[in-house]
Specification:
With 744 residues, the protein is α/β, with parallel strands linked by helices. 40% of the residues lie in helices and 18% in strands. The strands form seven sheets. Strands 1, 2, 5, 6, 7, 8, 20 and 21 form an eight-stranded mixed sheet that branches. A five-stranded parallel sheet has the order 10-17-11-12-13.
């Protein structure tokens, strides 16, 4: 560039002089010729033998030479930059390879954390005999998983002070180029090594995390696709994890400190609940090679929440808080976790996994979301970019304002029931105190009241339940059925206080005094607040996502889409129901169905949410109900009841279906029974004092919009079809016959 500038300074005066001569010739010719002065200069400048023609040609030659010189300079500059870029990539690649091969012991020591102790012993024994052959083989096999991820983050910083954006771009080809370079070494090693027994152990170590265990969610369709991946040789590794689920809870704590967070993931799932797990399984079903990262602020992998307030409390195992295994009503035992640890792969191995997989990053909270940049920020300032994202943050238990204002002493003696830690804490409290008061008469409050009531005799525990309604589940059940349910709860050993509005809570003499607005005073040792759930929409502000003002939660369309590459599922989704309008549902079955649908849509399905999710509640093993649609006690209801038999209980229903999570056995079924539509107004059924089993219809504009099956099980497809049809019925007694409630 400096040479061109110097040449131009020398030639510029000559160019200006020739230009001046040309202008003078034009004026001189125009003055001497009186015929066509405008045309003469053109002919004179282009063809005239004298009068400055040589200077014009020189001017044109100089301009052309300058253009050619600039083009040559540009070409050489671009070519040189490209060559330096390639040299830079080769230098970084060779440096990471040399560093990994120079220290083969480091990756081998970090690997046994994901392998059993018996396997590490097998690896260490042959070292004295075949140390020269084992070390060069082990290092290349582990390098594509550990070394590239560490090097891509650490290498750019100590080098030349280039912008961070080019460094990030260099890291991408680095991780993609290294694995192919190492594959020939691994394939050739069994032929050269003297002891092939140690080599397969090292080669097969990355496979157990990606191997899925037998599917426990029978509701989800992806099971056949995922189960086709594992090899037969991995069956011994999966066996020790099943009888020891307590290891999962213990290993969930220290895992986040040792994990290296991947900088990018194709599928990012925020939240570690049921919706995220269902979405991950659905994504893997449609895209078997997908790489899915679940980020959760809990210390446990995805698990089921319903047993926390149901079956776990009825377990005879004194160590149930450690094992988290329970017996279903049908007597079969299962773990609260959806899958054992072997189903997941380590987060640092996700990018290098050849067949993809599902990784769970526990103990990490997403505090900021950049929608335009397609990235999130964790609470430790780590950033992760994504291609597609699912928000399944669930909800946060509500608390009473009078309790929040009461002070720290009252809060220490109050439990907001939601997670595994809450179950463990309340279980310990129930064994050491004399009285517990449950505030709330909904699903959770009534289930916990019945569960703790069973312990009242064994532990000399007083259980009190108070709520502002007239009876248990007064916002859902009709008044007559709510009153009957209240008597049922009382028979479980619970003292029920209805129409109770809490005015204040104070702590005196290590006791909590709850003062009601009508003057009543209740003294207790501990409080359980079960007053509802608040959807977790903390990311709405940073992400710029819309929050529904009526129902709460992220506002999404019928495809559960909030943005072009962002979906929301579970409790936090306020979706559009094509049959019942905009809704937000807080139940297990909805989390399963919405998570599965969001996963399908993230892989290009574009399906609307048409499935009517159900929910269920059990007041012990003898009384339970299933519901679907809009069940609100403020709506007109018609109930049809019949005498119950021994098989009309939750226990008998699970014995027949073979599963304790009843939604898993019915969501794939479809109803084929025809429902006749009539036009007359529904009649009111006369109720008796005993409600063994029956069907309750909720009406809006003479159309059934909600159904409760009281001690009637495995009939939900029929109820779903009635709501889907959206027709009026003259005699709901005839419609109730479709549920076979009169059969013995």
């Amino acid at each position: 560039m400096l040479k061109c500038r110097t040449v131009w300074k020398k030639l510029a005066p000559l160019a200006r002089a020739s230009s001046t001569v040309c202008r003078q010739n034009v004026r001189r010719t125009g003055l001497t010729s009186s015929r066509i002065p405008a045309c003469v200069p053109v002919a004179h400048m282009s063809t005239g033998p004298a009068g400055g023609g040589r200077e014009n040609q020189l001017y044109i030659l100089l301009v052309g030479a300058a253009c050619v010189g600039g083009a040559i300079y540009t070409y050489r500059t671009v070519k040189g930059d490209s060559q330096r870029y390639q040299d830079r990539i080769e230098e970084i690649s060779s440096r990471s390879y040399k560093r990994a091969t120079a220290e083969p012991a480091t990756p081998i020591q970090s690997e046994p954390s994901a392998v059993d102790a018996t396997e590490t012993e097998v690896i260490l024994e042959p070292e004295p005999e075949a140390a020269p052959s084992l070390e060069p083989e082990a290092a290349p096999s582990l390098e594509p998983e550990a070394a590239p991820s560490l090097e891509s983050e650490a290498a750019p910083s100590p080098e030349e002070p280039s912008p961070p954006a080019p460094d990030a771009e260099v890291a991408v080809p680095e991780t993609t180029e290294l694995p192919p370079a190492d594959e020939p070494v691994v394939e050739a090693s069994p032929e050269e090594s003297a002891e092939p027994a140690a080599v397969p152990v090292v080669e097969e170590e990355p496979s157990p995390p990606s191997e899925p265990s037998p599917v426990e969610l029978t509701e989800l369709p992806p099971a056949p696709v995922v189960e086709s991946e594992p090899a037969a040789a991995e069956s011994p590794a999966a066996e020790p994890t099943e009888p020891q689920p307590e290891v999962v809870a213990q290993s969930g704590g220290p895992a986040p400190d040792s994990l290296k967070v991947p900088s990018h993931t194709p599928y990012l799932l925020i939240g570690g609940g049921t919706a995220s797990f269902a979405a991950a399984r659905s994504i893997r079903a449609r895209d078997p090679g997908a790489k899915v990262l679940i980020v959760t602020d809990e210390s446990d992998p995805p698990y089921m929440r319903p047993p926390l307030s149901k079956e776990l409390w009825f377990s005879d195992d004194p160590s149930v808080t450690e094992t988290l295994r329970f017996k279903q009503w049908n007597g079969k035992e299962r773990s609260i976790y959806f899958q054992p640890p072997s189903f997941y792969i380590n987060a640092e191995e996700l990018n290098g996994a050849e067949n993809g997989g599902v990784a769970v990053l526990t103990g990490k909270k997403v505090v900021h979301m950049d929608v335009r940049g397609n990235k999130i920020k964790l609470d430790d300032d780590t950033e992760i970019s994504y291609d597609k994202c699912l928000i399944a943050t669930g909800g946060v238990p509500r608390n009473l304002q009078v309790i929040e204002r009461a002070g720290e002493e009252v809060m220490k003696k109050t439990t907001l029931f939601r997670k595994i830690e809450d179950f463990k804490s309340l279980d310990k409290v129930s064994r050491n105190v004399k009285s517990i008061t449950i505030i709330g008469g909904g699903f959770l409050g009534s289930e916990l009241a019945c569960a703790l009531g069973r312990r009242s005799t064994e532990y000399d525990l007083e259980v009190v339940q108070m709520f502002p309604e007239k009876g248990n589940m007064g916002k859902v059940l009709p008044e007559y059925l709510s009153n009957w349910t209240t008597e049922k709860v009382k028979s479980e050993g619970v003292k029920v206080i209805s129409e109770a509005l809490v005015k204040s809570v104070v702590c005196k003499d290590d006791k909590l005094e709850i003062k009601l607005k009508d003057g009543r005073l209740v003294k207790t040792d501990h409080i359980v607040a079960a007053v509802g759930l608040e959807p977790n929409v903390d990311l709405a502000k940073s992400a710029g996502l819309e929050v529904d003002s009526d129902f709460g939660g992220f506002r999404v369309n019928a495809e559960l889409q909030a943005r072009s590459n962002i979906w929301v599922a579970g409790d936090a989704a306020c979706f559009y129901d094509i049959r019942l309008g905009r809704r937000r549902v807080e139940h297990h079955d909805h989390a399963v169905v919405s998570g599965r649908l969001a996963g399908e849509n993230m892989t290009g399905a574009n399906k609307p949410y048409w499935h009517q999710s159900m929910f269920w509640s059990d007041l012990g093993p003898d009384v339970g109900y299933e519901a679907i649609g809009i069940v609100d006690s403020s709506l007109p209801t018609v109930g049809v009841f019949a005498k119950a038999t021994a098989k009309d209980t939750p226990k008998a229903a699970t014995e027949k279906s073979g599963t304790g999570i009843r939604s898993e056995s019915e969501t794939e079924d479809t109803a084929t029974s025809p429902v006749a539509s009539l036009t007359l107004a529904p009649t009111v059924e006369q109720h008796q004092d005993e409600y063994g089993k029956g069907v309750i219809f909720y009406l809006r504009d003479k159309v059934v919009v909600g159904i409760i099956l009281w001690n009637v099980f495995n009939r939900m497809p029929i109820a779903r079809k009635i709501i889907k049809d959206g027709e009026e019925h003259a005699d709901l007694n005839e419609v109730a016959k479709l549920f076979n409630i009169h059969d013995d």
